[in-house]
Design goal:
It contains 13 helices and 10 strands. By secondary structure, it is α/β, with parallel strands linked by helices. It has 2 domains: 194 residues, Class I glutamine amidotransferase (GATase) domain (Rossmann fold, 3-Layer(aba) Sandwich); 109 residues, Homeodomain-like (Arc Repressor Mutant, subunit A, Orthogonal Bundle), CATH 1.10.10. The strands form 3 sheets. The protein has a 6-stranded mixed β-sheet with strand order 2-1-5-6-10-9, with helices on both faces. The protein has a two-stranded antiparallel sheet with strand order 3-4. Helix 1 runs parallel beside helix 5 and helix 11 crosses helix 12. The protein starts with a strand and ends in a 12-residue tail after the last helix. 35% of the residues are buried.
C-alpha cells in the first residue's frame, strides 16, 4: 500500500487542500489497496487558512514512511523555509519519493532547488514572479500540470484535480483514475491548458515594456509584426527581442500571437461574429490562421471554445446543466 502525505502549512489554500483530501484521503471504493494517507505539519496546529477558517488536525512531523508528498499551496511571497521541513522534503526527494505541488506549492519546491533544470508550472497569476525568481526552471505557461521525474506541479485551483487524477493514473492505472474522475464529476483528461482561462485584463508585467504591451493589445488589428513593437519601444528589433525574452521568457512573436488569441477568446465569449471577421479584428490574415493559432495556444478549436464559454440563451424557467 502506497503511503501519501498531505503537507499542512499556515495560510493554506482551503480549496487546494480539499482537492488533495478528496482525491487521496480515506478508504476509496475505486481500489482495495488505496493510499494510506496522513497529514504532515512542521508547526503546531491549529492552522489558519486564506479564507479565515482555522484547521485543527492530527498530523505527523515525519516523512520517513511517506512515499508521496502533496503540497496543496505555499505563500508565494514567503522566502523562509523551516529547516526541519526543508531537510525532510530533501531527504524524501533523495530517496526517490514523489513530491507534487498544487498551484503555488511550486514555489516551495523551487525554493528548495528541486525544480532546477526541470519543467514546472503554477497558476498564471504567479507566472511572471515565478519566472523572475527561478530562472533555472523551465516554466510551462499553458499546461494544466507537469510531471518531470518524481516532481509534479499544477496550474493551480481546479488543476489540482487534473494533477491528482494523473498521480492516481500512474499509481493505479487508467481504469481506477477514470473511476475517481467520475466520482468527482470531473473530466479524467481536460482539453487544452490554462491559457484558455487567463484573464486578459490581469496586469502581469511592469515598466516601459508594460506600456508597449498595453499599446499592442489595443492595436492588434493594425500590428502586422514585432517590428511595430520595437519601434514603439524606441529600440532596434534585435535589442527589443532580447529585452522582451529576458522579461517574459517568451519571444515577442509568440506573445503577440497569444494576445491575438486572448482577445479572440473574449470576443467568442460575448458574440457570434463569424471567424473570418474575428480573424481580422485581432490581426490575423484569415480564419485558417486564426484556427491554427487557436488550437496551438488554447488546445481546442474556436468553435469548441465558444460552445464551452460563450453566452448561453437566457433561461426563464429552471436551469438544468
Amino acid at each position: 500500500m502506497k503511503r501519501i502525505g498531505i503537507l499542512i502549512t499556515p495560510q493554506i489554500n482551503l480549496f487546494a487542500l480539499s482537492c488533495a483530501t478528496e482525491v487521496f484521503a480515506g478508504g476509496r471504493a475505486e481500489s482495495p489497496t488505496w493510499y494510506e494517507c496522513e497529514f504532515i505539519c512542521f508547526e503546531k496546529p491549529p492552522f489558519s487558512t486564506r479564507c479565515g477558517i482555522a484547521i485543527d488536525v492530527n498530523c505527523s512531523r515525519s516523512l520517513a514512511n511517506i512515499d508521496t508528498l502533496i503540497i496543496p499551496s505555499w505563500p508565494v511571497e514567503q522566502k523562509h523555509v523551516r529547516l526541519p521541513m526543508a531537510e525532510q522534503i530533501m531527504a524524501l526527494y533523495a530517496r526517490g519519493g514523489q513530491i507534487h505541488g498544487f498551484g503555488s506549492g511550486a514555489f516551495l519546491l523551487a525554493q528548495l532547488g528541486l525544480l532546477e533544470n526541470k519543467s514546472a508550472t503554477t497558476h498564471w497569476r504567479h507566472a511572471a514572479q515565478f519566472r523572475k525568481r527561478f530562472t533555472h526552471t523551465h516554466y510551462l505557461d499553458d499546461v494544466m500540470y507537469c510531471i518531470d521525474g518524481n516532481i509534479g506541479t499544477s496550474a493551480g485551483s481546479a488543476a489540482a484535480l487534473d494533477l491528482g487524477i494523473e498521480i492516481v493514473r500512474r499509481d493505479f492505472g487508467h481504469d481506477v483514475a477514470n473511476r475517481v474522475a467520475k466520482r468527482l464529476l470531473f473530466s479524467p483528461q481536460r482539453q487544452g491548458g490554462q491559457g484558455q482561462f487567463v484573464d486578459p485584463n490581469e496586469p502581469l508585467y511592469d515598466g516601459n515594456l508594460a506600456d508597449v504591451m498595453k499599446w499592442a493589445v489595443k492595436h492588434l488589428d493594425k500590428i502586422k509584426d514585432v517590428d511595430a513593437l520595437a519601434e514603439r519601444a524606441g529600440m532596434s528589433r534585435r535589442s527589443f527581442d532580447r529585452h522582451f525574452r529576458a522579461a517574459t521568457g517568451s519571444s515577442a512573436k509568440v506573445w503577440l500571437n497569444k494576445q491575438r488569441i486572448t482577445i479572440a477568446k473574449s470576443i467568442l465569449e460575448d458574440s457570434d461574429v463569424a471567424l473570418d471577421i474575428l480573424a481580422r479584428l485581432v490581426g490575423f490574415d484569415n480564419a485558417i490562421t486564426l484556427r491554427f493559432n487557436f488550437n496551438k495556444y488554447v488546445g481546442i478549436s474556436p468553435a469548441a471554445y465558444r460552445s464551452e464559454f460563450g453566452k448561453k440563451e437566457e433561461r426563464h424557467e429552471k436551469s438544468v446543466v
